Amino acid sequence: MATQTLFDKIWDPHVVYEDSNGTTLLYIDRHLVHEVTSPQAFEGLKLAGRHPRRPEATLAVPDHNVPTTDRRVDIADPLSRIQIQTLEHHCADFGIPMFSMHDIRQGIVHVIGPEQGLTLPGMTIVCGDSHTSTHGAFGALAFGIGTSEVEHVLATQCLIQKRPQTMEIRVDGQLSPHCSAKDMILAIIGHIGTSGGNGYVVEYTGEAVRSLSMESRMTLCNMSIEGGARAGMLAPDETTLSYIKDRPMAPPAHLWPQAVHHWERLRTDPGATYDRIVTLHGEDIAPQVTWGTNPGMVTGVDGAVPDPRSCSDVETQDATARALDYMALIPGTPIVDINIDRVFIGSCTNSRIEDLRLAASYFKGKKVAPSVKAMIVPGSGLVKKQAEEEGLDTIFRAAGAEWRESGCSMCLAMNADMLQPGERCASTSNRNFEGRQGKGGRTHLVSPAMAAAAALTGHFVDIRHWA
Amino acid sequence: MNPFTTHTGQVAPLDRVNVDTDQIIPKQYLKTIHRTGLKEGLFADWRHLPDGLPDPDFFMNQPQYAHATILLTRDNFGCGSSREHAPWALLDYGIRSILAPSFAEIFYNNCFQNSILPIALEAQDIQQLFDQVYADDQVQLTIDLAAQTISTPQKSTFQFSIDPFRKQCLLQGLDAIGLTLQREKDIAGYEARRKQEAPWLFQDLCS
Fold it and tell me: Is residue A107 predicted with pLDDT exceeding 90?
């Protein structure tokens, strides 16, 4: 038998039908739904008199619009309220399971899937959200889709796809102390560019990748889309299995051995080839800070704001100059000299318990700088509960940071949490696009440790020298 | 879905790389539960200066491009968020085709679901088109999907490639869900087989 990549081993068993042009009807095992990208899909189904094929393979949750303040109070913004109510109505009409805003299991869709054991190796998983790539951390093929495709999956449990190309991104060696999966993925995007992964599914390999915890692997795969790849994945192993076992939606005991036997085959065969290979070394990766308006505009914390005049081509020069203008940064400024006004620790990239523990280890016994407002938003109600049981909330509050309810929050500022024009934020989220965290707001993407250190000092710090 | 066969229209230039969908339509316009009326949000932050006045340098505020139906832009157009509100907003404004050296994948796919034809051309062809539009802002292009050509008034023609399935869907305005539903027997057969092979994939999330 021909050698196969991890991707091949997931794709092939999901092909329902393939025509002579390679157009494939691909079966979808799990469909996650949130309130922003689904109302028009449900409406389309109803207009066409269609029904969800497998409502029981679908899970809905409101996350983008939900307030992170007291949930007992009604949502102030009527549009946000209507969008969440619309999701509730459609799910009730079609028998789709949903975690409501008041359910402790509610949270960011890409946090709760893994947390519930819904995300499993070998699956195809889609959601009307580009950060669906997160679930690839389990050795699943997971990617974001548009609303028309949400409707397509609801109606048919399938999608029409073309087989993508494969890219191996190997990180050899080990990350330095104080560096994390967030620094790894930012360094990767800096290396391949924001469109480097277009048309590819990425498999992350190498010692530095394999050493990552399950939650760190999610951080890594989460930002695959920021490098242009719709999906990123890594092969399941013992770390994966011990994370999944006994979670509420994981295979029950009588199916567990069969599932594990199946998952053990999910790894790239020796000699299998990828369409492109990129190699980095863990030791070369410094804590990363973005300086521009896309995640590829990034440098090490020991670096400086670049000079547009040193860019190789006119397009990059223009884009760099435009980004620096928006970010109000002067070429040559050392990254550690950039002062910040706000800190956001949260989002589907970095809002899990390990992220919060790491941030708390910095905050403990210290105070947020007087010039900074810091906000910590756990990824789910269960992450929040866990953090509170460990006393992390007390550490954050004592330091002067705000401890909020779970949701997408200021990652995209669809709820009330947003930057004011001109405010500069150290954020653990995934996008530093213009206006992403609020119109006129300036976002620097960093790891939770870097965000915590920035909150305490009021500027970026090389945490490799943190006392 | 409305078919796309041929289209002749005026071209608006958006000379920026990596235009992300957060710029095409900012988040405050995603709270709608409808897919129409989204042109209000199209490039809402780029159309206006910080003081709220229209930015005279942006194509949407320039009277010479008021009737443009083809958008000419640069690499990696539509990157970032999967929001289909981006093509909905472009369509609502009147854009029927987008020409760029490359597109982000999810956005590219979303265009086809809405009868918008995204065309990837070589960077030098895109540059040539920019030069033409800057020389004559009233230039009209004719796109012929069946022939896979773009022609300029100077009779120069650019050939483009497109996936044959996507082409057929656009030419005939096919309902993709309807097409898949014609394969119902294949899907049911697949599910029955798969349930035997991998029963844990068929657990009921409702229970």
Answer: yes
Residue A48 has pLDDT above 90, yes or no: yes
Residue of A24, A194, A325 for testing the chain B interface, max B β-carbons within 10 Å: A194
The amino acid at residue A130 is: S
Instruction: Give the pLDDT of residue A104.
Output: 97
Structural element, H or E, at residue A298: strand A298-300
ipTM of the complex: 0.97
Distance CA A331, CA A418 (A): 27
The one-letter amino acid at A233: M
Q: Which whole number is the average pLDDT over A241-252?
A: 97
Is the pLDDT reported for residue A467 higher than 80? no
Residue A399 pLDDT level (bands cut at 50, 70, 90) = very high
DSSP A263-304: HTT-SPPTT---SEEEEEEGGGPPPEEE-SSSTTSEEETTSB
Q: How far, rounded to the nearest angstrom, does the alpha carbon of residue B62 sit from its chain's CA centroid?
A: 22
Residues of A in contact with B84 (CB under 8 A): 37, 40, 128, 146-148
Which is nearest to B18 in space by CA: A33, A295, A441, A273? A295
Express each pLDDT in A121-153 by its tens digit: 999 999 999 999 999 999 999 999 999 999 999
Residues linked to residue B141 through DSSP beta bridges, in sequence order:
B9
Q: Does B81 touch chain A (CB under 8 A)?
A: yes
- DSSP for residue A135: G
pLDDT at B207: 63
Nearest to B86 by CA among A222, A59, A36, A151: A36
Nearest Cα residue to B106 out of B21, B195, B11: B21
pLDDT average, residue stretch A22-35: 98
Nearest to residue A53, comparing CAs of A95, A11, A14, A23?
A95
The DSSP 8-state label assigned to residue B130 in this structure reads H
Question: B 115-144 residues with CB below 8 A of A?
Answer: none
Residues of chain B whose pLDDT is less than 70?
206-207
Read off the pLDDT of each residue in A173-193 and give the average, rounded to a whole number. Answer: 97
Q: Do A252 and B203 touch (CB under 8 A)?
A: yes
The pLDDT > 90 percentage for chain A reads 98
- Report helix, strand and coil shares of chain A as percent, to nearest 5: 40, 20, 45
In the A/B pair of chains, how many CB contacts fall below 8 A?
198
Helix (H, G, I), strand (E, B) or coil at B112: helix
pLDDT exceeds cutoff 70 at A1: no
Contact across the interface for B79 and A294, Cβ inside 8 Å: yes
Is B26 at the interface with chain A, CB within 8 A?
A: yes
Is the Cβ–Cβ distance between B160 and B119 less than 8 Å? yes
CA B170 – CA B144 distance, rounded (Å): 12
| Cβ of residue B179 closer than 8 Å to a chain A Cβ | yes
Given an 8 Å threshold on Cβ–Cβ distance, is B31 in contact with A144?
A: no
Residue A391's CB is within 10 A of a number of other CB atoms, namely 12
| Distance from C-alpha of A18 to C-alpha of B160, rounded to nearest angstrom | 25
Residues of B in contact with A53 (CB under 8 A): 187
Which residues of chain B have a CB within 8 Å of the CB of A65?
Answer: 31
Which DSSP state fits A311?
-
Percentage of chain A surpassing pLDDT 70? 100
Which residues in chain B are closer than 8 Å to A120, comparing Cβ atoms?
Answer: 200-201
pLDDT at B13: 98
Q: Identify which of A227, A190, A220, A224 has the alpha carbon closest to the alpha carbon of residue A206.
A: A220
Give A313's contacts in chain B (Cβ within 8 Å).
none
User: Quick one: closest CA in A to B81, which residue?
Assistant: A130
Per-residue pLDDT at B154: 82
